[in-house]
Specification:
single chain; 80 residues; mainly alpha; 3 helices; flat
Amino acid sequence: MKSTHFIASLLVWIGGINWGLFGLGSFFDSNWNVVNQLLGSWAAVEWIVYILVGVSAIYLVVTHKAHCRACEGSDAAPVM
């Protein structure tokens, strides 16, 4: 499970950075979608990357409490 958690976290980081750059690029009328720039010629592979990022986010939401150090123990306040 540790490797699954690591891969999911990595994909969510990539997705988060990509969306941040995409939003920032929109202010400058530019396309800073890194996934699209790298894989745009392979649309199916690009879609698979987006699907994997989404599935990873769902996985992390569902398994968050089991892996989060801030959520461990009875003294920890709930993290939203």
